[in-house]
Amino acid sequence: MSSEDSTVPFGPSQGNRADAPPPASSWGSFRLLARVGEGGFGEVYRAWDPHLQREVALKLLLPGAVTGEAEYEAMLREARAMASVHHPNIVPVYGIDRQNGRVGFWTDFVHGKTLATLLRTQGKFGAREAASIGLDVAKALSAVHRAGLLHRDIKAENVMREEGGRILLMDFGLSSGGKHQTFVAGTPNYMAPELFRGAQNTIATDMYALGVLLYYLVAGEYPAPLSGLSASEVLSRLEQRKPLADMRPDLPDSLLRTITTAIDLDPIKRFASAGQIVSALAESLGASPQAEFVTPPSNDLPKGRRRVKILGGIAIVAALAAGFAAWRGFLPQRFRTNSEPTSVSSGTTYDQFQKAQDLLLRSYKQSNVAGAVKGFQEVLAADPSFALAHARLGLAYFIQYRNSHDPKLLDMAQQSTGRAMNLDPNLAPPYITLSRIAATQGQTALAMQQAQKALSLDPRSAEAYGALAEVYAAQGKDQDAIGAYQKAIDLAPDDWRWPVRLGNEEIGNGNLKDSIAQFQRGVDLAQDNAIAYYDLGVADMQADQMDEARKNLETALKIEPTANGYSALGSVFLLNHQYERAAEMYRRSIDLNPASYNAWGNLALAYSWSGELLEKSESAYRKAIALAEAEHEKNRDDPELLVALADFYASIGNSGAANPLLRQALALAPDNLYVAYEAGETYEALGQRDKAIPLIARAVANGYHAYEVERNPDLAALRADPAFATALHGAGKKK
Question: Which end of the chain, C or N, has fewer beta carbons within 10 A?
Fold first, then answer.
């Protein structure tokens, strides 16, 4: 932040004189030296950091701007993302904290002026000056995108020229690409037309904003002033905007083309990446863009919580729709890139690489992944320029991150991926890893762009089609996902991952027979693969093939004991009315994962169905409630969590707590068959059969597992009720 510039990142300046005396003398340990700006969300101060003994720009939100712990945690994630993107054209962020009832974060205090101030004082920019500024901004934006983030508020007020001439991009973290957006993102004059139609921010919208910035610098006005207009008025105004060539006919054709392409109304016709704008602007300056090393950040973003499948009150930790095996590992069947690596200097190095890659292919064992990490590190110690080894090391770190949720591993994954991309920008694997990172963060548009980039670089990459399938699945495009997984199988028929993931997609669509066939194929391809046996066992259970389910789950546990495996096997025993063995399996699951509210709920159910351990059942339910309520505080709108919690409360007779949770879950997910079934079962437990029957009938008639109704002793009276048979018939399925 500049002491000469009153424009602040929270909104338009209120006209205060720069360097005004601060209303308070301190914030926490910081000494406030002067208020240099304020806006609708807060104030910016020139402050003194006593710990680091330097001036900083301290940005304080207004009191009450952050209303709860969840919102602060979201802001904290954004600040961490900001702090970990290192680039010479990005203002570094040093920290974030809450003091004196206000949230603030602090950055480098930059002595300089924003481009908005420069435009006001010196007038329109010349072609070379604007292109040079755009080149630096585009390089900074490229670093942001490679880190899996979006800027979402590029504008003249957020770009500064330091006193020494360096161009700095500011405040991208205020509107980063996470699912939970803490700040209002975007300035109307810079917003792409699709945003006014309700679309989400993407790389294409950042490209548009950068184009508007360049237009503004050379024209002195916006392509079409949009502030204060309705969405329909905005779109009409954009269609009538002034061609830049009419306003600045003196600009070189190359710069005109660059700006015109960047602000095309059709996002598909814009530049696909900031790197493409770098190349175009370098051409305008008569130079060649230099590759630069970018250190991607550690994004402490929301963890992709593996959802559970609760079947008839039985929490089966089935990564079926989500895929227990999903994202456990991605690498091609063979060593292949678009161009053969020039950095493999010896057969020994290549042999080491192959051994590490073979271990990573068997990523269903964590020990194999650890061995792969060590192997790639040894390869890179011998040859630091081996781009594909950097890419594979990044992948291995990412797999470890998915297993442990340690944000340091995500940071390491992104750093290695960034090194690979800088050494060889034509490698597909780094883009695949970035696609997966974006997909786990819910950024499906960004994930799709990265997957498509990988396919453009290597159209025969099975793993790129696997990444594409995962994005389709996240978007709810199930048939497209199935087609992409089938393409991956066609390209790499000996790779266990693709039939297993296709099986997960098929089971999510209710195609049990097809899913079992795919899981069996995965088992045949990798017979020491506990994940494939686990998925096959849970599919068998849903197909009511209990003996096969037991055998496959026992095999999975023999290979690798896991909490999920014991929970699923316990559910097999429970549905076969072997309550003592079921309780034993659930206790083993809890030993491995004592924080699982589902495992505690399952254990309580086993005690309850036994008819002999009711006191233990209530104790286990209360433990499940405590754990589920703790999760509920973090995630208020998860319908599956809500119905699980409602079931626990109903099981101890607390209808007052259960009923509102059921209503909320059904309102949030009216078409979710699992939620409908679980809510119906809970209503039956509460003695509200008139509500239970239509929900259970609708779920079963539309493909939910009928064996659960038939094997659940708590539903015996409902099954015998003639109204249930009538409801099933009316829902399109005969009893």
Answer: C
pLDDT score, position 550:
95
Question: pLDDT-derived band of residue 334, with 50, 70 and 90 as boundaries?
Answer: very low
Q: Is the pTM of this model over 0.85?
A: no
Q: Work out the average pLDDT over 152-158.
A: 89
Query: Residue 170: what pLDDT?
Result: 81
What residue segments make up the domains of the chain, in order of their start? 26-108, 115-284, 597-730
CATH superfamily membership of 115-284 = Transferase(Phosphotransferase) domain 1 (1.10.510.10)
Q: CB neighbours of 476 closer than 8 A, spacing ≥ 6? A: none
Amino acid identity at 601: G
> What is the secondary structure of 645-689 as a DSSP string?
HHHHHHHTT-HHHHHHHHHHHHHH-TT-HHHHHHHHHHHHHTT-H
Q: In angstroms, rounded to a whole number, what is the distance separating the alpha carbons of residues 284 and 219?
A: 17
Count, residues in the chain? 735
Using the predicted structure, report yes or no on whether residue 349 has a pLDDT greater than 90. Answer: no
405 Rama class: left (phi>0) / alpha (psi -120 to 50) / beta: left
- Mapping DSSP onto H, E and C, the string for 218-276 reads HHCCCCCCCCCCCHHHHHHHHHCCCCHHHHCCCCCHHHHHHHHHHCCCCHHHCCCCHHH
Average confidence score pLDDT of the chain: 80
* DSSP bridge partners of 310: 315
Do 497 and 330 meet the contact criterion of CB atoms below 8 Å apart?
Answer: yes
Confidence of residue 624 (pLDDT cuts 50, 70, 90): very high
- Dihedral sign for Cα atoms in the order 4, 9, 14, 20: negative
Token pair for 382:
């011998």
| Coil, strand or helix at 708 | helix
Fold of 597-730: 1.25.40
Q: What is the CATH number assigned to the segment(s) 26-108? A: 3.30.200.20
- 26-108 and 115-284 share one fold: no
Amino acid residing at 87? H
- CA atoms 403, 634, 313, 733: torsion sign: negative
